[in-house]
Amino acid sequence: MFPVLSSLIFLPLLGALAILFLPREREDLSRPCALITTGTVLAVSAALIFGFDRTAPGMQFAERSLWIPQLNVWYFLGVDGISIGLVFLTALLGFLACLASNEIRDRLKEYYVLYLLLMAGMLGTFLALDLVLFYVFWEVVLIPMYFLIGIWGGPRKEYAAIKFFLYTLAGSVVMLVGILIAYFTTKPHTFNMLELAAAASNGAFDPQLQMWLFLAFYLAFAIKIPVFPFHTWLPDAHVEAPTPISVLLAGVLLKMGGYGIFRICLPIFPQGSASFATAFAVLGVINIVYGAGVAMAQSDFKKMIAYSSVSHMGFVMLGFASMNSIGFNGALLEMFNHGIITGAMFLLVGVLYKRAHTREMDKFGGLSAQTPLYAFFLTICSLASLGLPGLSGFVGEFLSLMGAYQGFPVITALSLFGLIVTAGYFLFMIQRVLLGPLNPDCRYYKDVSPLETLTLAPLVIIFVVVGFWPALVLDLQKPTLGMLLSLLGVTS
Amino acid sequence: MVNVAHLIPLFPFLAFLINIAFGGKLKNACGPVSVAASAISFVLALFVYQGFRSGGGSYSLGTWLSLGDTPLNFGVMVDGLSIMMLLVVTFIGTLIQIYSIGYMQGDPRFSRYFAYISLFMASMLGLVIADNFVMLYIFWEGVGLCSYLLISFWFEKPAAARAGLKAFVTTRIGDTGLFLGILLLFFTTKTLSFHDLQQISEGHGTVLAIVAVLVFIGAAGKSAQFPLHVWLPDAMEGPTPVSALIHAATMVAAGVYLVARTYPLFLVDPFALQTVAVIGGISALLAASIATVNNDIKRVLAYSTVSQLGLMMLGLGVGGYAAGTFHLMTHAFFKALLFLCAGSVIHAVHTQDIWKMGGLFSKMRVTATTFLIGTLAIAGVPPLAGFWSKDEILSAAYQNGHTVLFGVAVLTSFLTAFYMSRLIFVVLFGKPRSNLHPHESPATMTVPLMILAVFAALVGFVGSPLAHHAFQGFVGGGESSAASQANGGMMILSTVISLAGIGLAYLIYILNVNVLPAGMLSRLNGLHQLLLNKYYIDEIYDAFLVQPFLGLCRISYKIDLGVVDDLVNGVARFVAALSEFLRPMQTGLVQNYLLVQIVGLIILILTLGKLCFRY
Amino acid sequence: MIPLSYIVALSAFLFCVGVFGVLTRRNAIGILMSVELILNAANINLVAFNRYSNGTDALGQVFSLFVIAIAAAGSVVGLVLIIAIYRNGKSIFVDKYDLMKW
Amino acid sequence: MAELVFFVIAAAICFFAVLVVTSHDIFHSSVWLAMTLLSVAGLYFYLDAPFLGVIQVLVYVGGIITLFVFAIKLTAHIGDKSIVQTNRQTIFAGLCCLILFALLMNMLQHSCHGPFPHSEPISLKQLGQSLVSVYVLPFEFISLLLLAAMVGAIAIGRDKK
Fold this sequence. Notes:
The structure holds four protein chains of four kinds. Chain A contains 20 helices and two strands. Chain A is mostly helical. A two-stranded antiparallel sheet of chain A has the order 1-2. The mean pLDDT of chain A is 89. By secondary structure, chain B is mainly α. Chain B has 26 helices and two strands. Chain B has a two-stranded antiparallel sheet. In chain B, helix 1 (10-26) runs antiparallel to helix 2 and helix 11 runs parallel beside helix 14. The longest helix of chain B has 46 residues, at 537-582. Chain B starts with 9 loop residues before the first helix and ends with a helix. By secondary structure, chain C is mainly α. In chain C, 75% of the residues lie in helices and 0% in strands. Chain C has helices at residues 4-24, 28-52, 59-89. In chain C, helix 1 (4-24) packs antiparallel against helix 2 (28-52) and helix 2 runs antiparallel to helix 3. Chain C is elongated, with a radius of gyration of 17 Å. The mean pLDDT of chain C is 87. Chains in contact: A-B, B-C, B-D, C-D. The interface between C and D is large, with 74 and 82 residues.
């Protein structure tokens, strides 16, 4: 059988290698090269979805070969309902953000090489089923991201890049300790996530140990998600990163944390997860309300979107806390949605920044008349982001809240307050940017270009379609989540 | 023929798609597209009505989403209440869209306007036929969105942009209540379908009363009930036909519709009904009193809408299910008429200040006549529509023993008659107060006015004793049978109240009689100021809710930067400080390093040497 | 013959004096001189052990020769470096050159 | 008698070596260094390694010291006595060296015991033969090293201006 999943990881690597060998004077070829590569990755991942069996709960397209025999480390890849959506999301955003990279003008070769390396790392993280492999990819993501922010970023890029790198690294070091403990606790020693989960259900980890291991992994994931109070790298990194990288940061990197919780914390440490459910819920509501409140206070467009990410990821946390089918479905769907919607939001900020070279919302005004298509995109994305029914953001939030309400009615009620505030700051943003009399400075802004439309339209179409027909995504993830829940000992 | 009900929202939605996609090419054809779509919907609604009469009912189109084990269906609710709403919305909607073609002529975003209106129609009709809470909530937010888009339609005006934001956020506060109610209901009863409400209302006790109150919060937000009423007057920044359609006839009535739809929940506990009635009463009186002094033609009507919606809520709250829904229907007609008339006037004189108008009657005969009919209808002069429905509410309040609320309703009726008469006396009669050149509006505007005027005058008969309360029987609600008995005394009372209100206005504004002694007048000055400033509710909200909240946001941002982020950076700074302390060890002087090396060598010899040489 | 330990002690002393010179001399040439002292200390040891060992192998002396050769090469390169540094920085005091830090 | 010779040589080495590292004038230091190296050459003679002694005199005193003197003269006016020739860590370094010496002595006391076999001194012929037979490879490498050092010295020392 054709190794589809390996091809997903190695295609970007091959592309990177090809660009690396481009002569310096033909640097301009690196963009088409990267576009072809990411386009192929997108096509492969789309084919993956079509070939995916929506009824099977287990791993599909699995590839397994021994990597380091002495340590029982395997090169083990596979997709299931949890990862398939995120793999597609990564491929899609990877391609669209690559399209949107035309604003990058200098050091093209390095940029695209790093970009493709980042792609490989992200896809690998979602596909790896061996903890060592997972850790390798997890770290591989960091390095290109560090350079992409640090070289092509905004005025405070060095600060943001270092902060991002160190912060995430600090988390993953703790995770590494967790991985090793998990490895040495099981007999025979294994890094295989599925075997670990099976061992866990046979009582390989006693509850006390589970709690510690859970915390070790959770810290790494919480920083990535990011959960209050570990969120402060995010506004800096998002604001300083160039537009395409912000898209990937918000769209994919944040999902790696949530994915890790689904893939590792919940199945391998079910009791540990269960004992922290309340903490999850509390942190979730803090994320939602606090993130929304801080977003309300922003005058910088991009920073506002960054804090809105914090707020939205709170719903994911709330979904985790629910420990039931509705909540899990909601959390996973919300991750997908957030990737699509916030990705589009960052693209929109980039469109505006390209024209105005500022992100202060008060410097705009009345763009609705000047750039109607832009206004349309911004409005519909804001509406999706604030959870308007009929667009996909609503379904994810609705399911998360519904799931969480069962166990935590008061916390859920509190988090509803975040919905109001979210509506407030998004509409306030629209009021400042799109409405009102046309700001004279914006007189010469051109409307969204065809290329920009090409990057935005697929995302809008996806969140509208998923909003109308959420079963498209939910059906993919349902069997796997059902199995996960039975592993957690939750019936129904 | 009932099974075409789900197509009713579809046609306006198609019109929306056509207008948004091809608006630039269609230009002036956009209006007719939307009108045609809602006309088709109206015809379909008639078919559904026919089918319902011959025994059709609700049906389902399949599952949309499953919540654990509970499937959420694309269900279509077909009963008296929803058919009544379908007919009213499509009929009035069609007329208002015809009117809009004239009113919006020449606007640069003509096609956008009709696209939004069509989207609104689709959402509103979807809301009406939704058979479960989630579907209803989806369309509920949909109409809210359209309301937002249309209020800030003329977004160049900062006031319009602000009003849109205010409307959306205020109603969203209410929606949050509704959302919570939905969650609570789901986890208490495991169902969200409206069909099951009657059945589940037994056996769950007071939890359902809480659900009912939460649902009512949602309804209060949408229907602009106190304390969430503040957005509606500001919403008048939108185009006038929008005010007529969304903010008078249909969307704001959705709150009342929701309460009526979930009435079994409210019947569980008297407390829930009490809440509805009291809030309704407060809103009715509060808004009516503000309307008596306001000088903006549209805002008077907006406060009147709040007041009338309050009256409907009051009617529902005192147990008059049929009375409330009946008033909902009649109000839709005459308030739409009034707004359209106001629109026609504004179209002619380009101002909204009533004290700049005057003597318009002779210049705009059609508009003025229909305006007059609408006013008489809302004032409750027999035998116009408002008389019958208001009478029902008064009877219901009286007969169910709510004396105070009855008093409130009577006072509101009086004030309604007074401020509406004041409005037309000032606007239509007397001498022109400023240099305006009014002219009659085009036929696309006057024809809908005339049609609506006929209905505003006559639609009340369907629920009158003369028609044996056919309407009440149609929408159901057997508990209203007590109210449905003809009550001669109540009719006379309500007529007297209306005439008294009109008479008082006539005395003051036509004859310029000083009704009150001068001393009293000056003492009332304070009250006048209070009313003119809308009880300072906006200011109170701003000072005690909005600004403190925004301040809190800013503080939390400061905390985020100063505390949360600083803790992180503090760790970094601690490490840096530590390195600052250790860094001088790296002097860069080779000899220092060598010296350290020698010291190390000595230590090595001292420790290892002990092992090797045993000394 | 005097005991071997005497010679080794002498070599140790020479070594320590050399180390002291390396540690304390500011002048780079002085440091180089001290290095020569250290090398000589080593050489003394090599020759002495060779003399006192039981065999006919000339290893010790051969290595002393090598050390002398290397020391010569070392001081040549070292001195040239010092001159080059002097040309750039107008000083051969090593505490003037503390660029190799953080 | 033989002991006396040794002690004289040893005393000379120690005395001159200390002067090398303590002298304030770098030029004086070089002179003392020459004296030290000569004394070491004497020690070689004493240890029956006359060839080595000759080489020591030729290479060191004849070659390296000359180089030092040249270097000192090229980096002029640093021999000025007003400039402090020792750095600030002198006392501590001295202390360390003393301790080190004490430790070495201590170790010596505990290790180098026993009678040593009295063997014949290595003859010059033996030395020469082993240089070109057993140790020919290192020997060649050393010559290569010297060549490299020479080339390197020229390359570095050339004034690029």
